[in-house]
C-alpha cells in the first residue's frame, strides 16, 4: 500500500499525483480530540 502516488511529467520529473485515503481517519480523530480538549478546558477553566 503506497501512501503517495507519483508519476512522471512530460519533462521526466517525478510529480505527486495523489494520496492514499486509507489514513483519513487520523486527522479527523485528531481534530475531534482537539475540539473535545477545548470544550473540557472551557468548562473547567473559568475566566474572570
Can you offer a commentary on this structure?
The protein is of the alpha+beta class. Helices cover 42% and strands 23% of the residues. The chain contains one helix and two strands, in the order ββα. The protein has one helix spanning 25-44, and strands at 4-8, 14-19. Strands 1-2 form a two-stranded antiparallel ribbon. Strand 1 (4-8) and strand 2 (14-19) form a beta hairpin. The longest helix is centred in the last third of the chain and has 20 residues, at 25-44. The termini are far apart.
Can you give keywords for this protein?
alpha+beta; 48 residues; 2 strands; 1 helix; two-stranded antiparallel ribbon
Compact description:
With 48 residues, the protein is α+β, with helices and mostly antiparallel strands.
Number of helices: 1
Radius of gyration: 20 Å
- Which percent range fits the helix content? 40-55%
User: Which sequence of SSEs, written as H and E, runs from N to C?
Assistant: EEH
Helix/sheet category: alpha+beta
Number of strands: 2
Q: Kindly estimate the percentage of residues that lie in beta strands according to DSSP.
A: 15-25%
The dominant shape is elongated
Largest sheet report: 2 strands, antiparallel
Low-confidence parts: none
Strand order of the largest sheet: 1-2
Instruction: Report how far the terminal alpha carbons are from each other.
Output: 52 Å
Arithmetic mean pLDDT: 91
Amino acid at each position: 500500500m503506497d501512501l503517495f502516488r507519483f508519476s512522471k511529467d512530460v519533462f521526466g520529473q517525478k510529480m505527486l499525483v495523489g494520496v492514499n485515503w486509507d489514513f483519513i481517519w487520523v486527522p479527523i480523530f485528531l481534530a475531534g480530540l482537539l475540539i473535545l480538549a477545548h470544550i473540557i478546558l472551557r468548562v473547567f477553566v473559568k475566566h474572570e
